[in-house]
Amino acid sequence: MSEGVGVDNLIELDYVKVDDGQRRSTAHSAKLDLRVQHVSKSFQSKNGTVYVLEDINLEISQGEFVCLVGPSGCGKSTLMNIVAGLEQADSGDVWANGRRIQGAGPDRVVIFQEAALFPWLNVIKNVEFGLKLKGISGRERRTIALEYLKMVHLTKFQNSHIHELSGGMKQRVAIARALAMNPEMLLMDEPFSALDAQTRWILHYELQNIWMKTKKTILFVTHNIREAVCLADRVFILSTSPGKIKKEFFIDLPRPRDDNDVNVAEYSTRIMKELKTEIDKVVKCEMDADSCVECDIKCTTVEAAKTDIGGGI
Amino acid sequence: MLAGFWQLLFWLDIWPEYVLPSPVSVGKTLAHGVRDQSLLIGVAISMKRIAIGYGISLGVGVFAGLLIGRFRIFEDTLGSLISGLQTLPTICWLPLSLLWFGLNDKAIIFLVFMGAVLSIATGTDSGVKNVPPLYIRAAKTMGAKRWKLYLEVIIPAALPHIIIGMKQGWSFAWRSLMAGELLIVCLGLGHLLMLGRELNDMSQVIAVMLIIILIGILVDRLFFFQSRKTYPRTLGPG
Ligand SMILES: Nc1ncnc2c1ncn2[C@@H]1O[C@H](COP(=O)(O)OP(=O)(O)OP(=O)(O)O)[C@@H](O)[C@H]1O
Ligand SMILES: [Mg+2]
Predict the structure, then answer these.
(1) B201 has which bridge partners?
(2) In Å, how far is A84's CA from the nearest CA of chain B?
(3) How far apart are CA A188 and CA A192, in angstroms?
(4) What is the pTM of this model?
(5) Which residue ranges make up each domain of chain A?
């Protein structure tokens, strides 16, 4: 399936057509790390039940970097929370490393959109937080924390307060804090979406390097196709209401990749084209929405996304 | 400066000595009180009472606040009970306290406890309710569970509010201690104050009042100012 490197090898699987057996065979001989089976989730709201996720199936092997892409509100964060154990699925199972997950655990650390660092601790103490919970002694904690702070190039700021850091630095501390726990996998929920393009570019580069060094399994949520192509081995596209896995793309490009690399750009364009139908569906769906103001806002954002390839869907 | 103005007023001789004693005579009374240790003993006894009462109310108040802040059942029961009791001036607990404990230290300590516990509980409660859920979720994914979640995340995150409650609780406790000591005769600073009145010794009254103010300021500066300084806050989640 991967004879060479380049755009020509864009491999896509249409989930509607591919059956279970075939899907498994296309994938990976490596050890499975995460298995999401028939997960569905709905929320009760004032206007009745909202079906957010419907029959989600995912298989991610150890050391893989997988991105989930989908329009806003399609249930990416919900799926992430279910995998993290912060929320419970209505039906279906999640297996992590061969065990059925029950609640949150330090083997699956989440990095959120806001860094969620603790302002009452300084930088190094934040990185040590999970280690302290694990009961690791003070001196060893410090050594490990320093090692990971070094990995994100922030040793100089080890004694700084959190409010003294920039957004990008906070996110890097959050990454160090997660890595320090030596988790089985990292769950990242739009961790860079609040950052400016320049900082994001740097962090894409750093994250790839860290991933190559540590070989952690990473599940990364974004609504930015360019970001997904830049980072992932595989990209899953979710459709909206209810959230379903629509397509799967294999990205076969050498690393570390650059946001502005031609191949990355071309991959993104092709995926965008594939998704044109889905976008149209979203636009149409939102045009039908009865709230005018909301509709206007949503339409403009969708328009913007269409002109800018790297934007959302 | 203030002392100079006071001395000036005294020299102007508007009021007789037993209404406004001179700073010098107050100073003498202070020195005498320190020398024969009556003042020091008074301070020590009062401080012991408030330390015990405030200490207990700190533990109980924070615990109750955590329960109210985290669990709906306690919010509906304990929470509404506390907000109801808060309208009651602490000194109104005196008769009940006397009936329960008799004319002794325990009654005063109970008064101090009642003075502080409500403020600390409500402070903790609002602190807990204001902990960003993101902190709790982040801590959970890092393996924080049960009491560790409280100890490592919820209490530190709620600390600014808890300290506000503690500060308010302290001033209520201090006031109810004095009120209690004035009304129940068994040593302490309040008792010395009352003794001054009974002996018509105005300089003793003022000397004791000065000490009460001084302790109030000292405690405020020493404990609460420092804790504010060593705990910088950012706005919003970090
Ligand atoms: N606790 C909840 N109660 C009710 N509805 C919820 C709840 N959490 C999420 N939802 C609904 O579920 C849907 C999916 O939410 P989710 O946060 O997973 O979307 P998302 O794909 O992460 O979007 P975004 O890209 O904007 O972060 C939304 O329509 C939202 O309104
Ligand atoms: Mg989200």
Answers:
(1) none
(2) 7
(3) 9
(4) 0.78
(5) 7-107+184-308, 120-182
| Protein residue whose Cα sits closest to atom 30 of ligand 1 | A73
For B44-230, the fitting CATH number among 3.40.50.720, 1.10.3720.10, 3.40.50.150, 2.30.40.10 is: 1.10.3720.10
d(CA B68, CA A230): 48
A80 Cα nearest atom in ligand 1: 18
Per residue in A7-64, pLDDT (tens digit) is: 444 555 544 434 443 344 344 456 778 889 888 898 888 888 888 888 888 899 988 9
**Which of A163, A170, A177 is nearest residue B232 as measured by Cβ atoms?**
A163
* Residue B150 Cα, gap to closest chain A Cα (Å): 12
A73 lines ligand 1 (CB under 6 A): yes
Query: Which residue in A106, A114, A115 is closest to B143 by CB distance?
Result: A106
Instruction: Tell me which chain A residue has its CA closest to the CA of residue B137.
Output: A86
Q: What secondary structure letter does DSSP report for A256?
A: S
Q: Peptide bond preceding A256: is omega within 30 degrees of 0, i.e. cis? A: yes
Is this prediction's ipTM beyond 0.85?
A: no
Question: Residue B7, Cβ neighbours under 10 Å: how many?
Answer: 13
- Tell me which CATH homologous superfamily contains domain A7-107+184-308: P-loop containing nucleotide triphosphate hydrolases (3.40.50.300)
CA-based R_g, chain B, Å: 22
Interface test mutation site (partner A, options B135, B142, B150, B163, max chain A beta carbons within 10 A): B142
